Amino acid sequence: MRRIALVTLVVDDYDEAIRFYTEALGFRLVEDEPRPDGARWVVVEPGSEWQGGGLLLARAKDEAQRGRIGDQTGGRVGFFLHTDDFARDHARMRAVGVRFLEEPRHEPYGSVAVFEDLYGNRWDLLQPAAD
Question: Which of 33, 75, 105, 124 has the most CB atoms less than 10 A away?
């Protein structure tokens, strides 16, 4: 069976990114291990158990990588966070300061609103429509 296990997200600071993803978005810190070169292997994931689809938070190593922080997908929504209770998670995220770029929409495919992470990457908070 094949699956995408991790997606790298270039960040400015490990601890700042960990705080945002765990406190503001409710992700779980799965790994935070030092590497011999001074970097860290930091993995967060949105579920309560490892199910794949986590983020590898990688601190930018040079100017080229720093230039991609917050713009990894050229301004498009590049990440999709599914929820089973849109209203609950939208309200909780707003209460802790997550910046939503639009009011919630109810589309045929589900309830959705675009938000930015702490660096400006765009995400959809999405509760898929029931089948």
Answer: 124
3-state secondary structure the chain: CCCCCEEEEEECCHHHHHHHHHHHCCCEEEEEEECCCCCEEEEEECCCCCCCCEEEEEECCCHHHHCCCCCCCCCCEEEEEECCCHHHHHHHHHHCCCEECCCCEEECCEEEEEEECCCCCEEEEEEECCC
Residue 49's contacts (CB-CB under 8 Å, 6 or more residues apart) are none
Beta carbons within 8 Å of 121's beta carbon, 6+ residues apart: 9, 70, 71, 72, 73, 78, 79
Q: Rounded to two decimals, what is the model's pTM?
A: 0.90
Summarised one tens digit per residue, pLDDT across range 40-97 is 999 999 976 556 689 999 999 999 999 999 999 999 999 999 999 999 999 999 999 9
First to last CA, the chain: 25
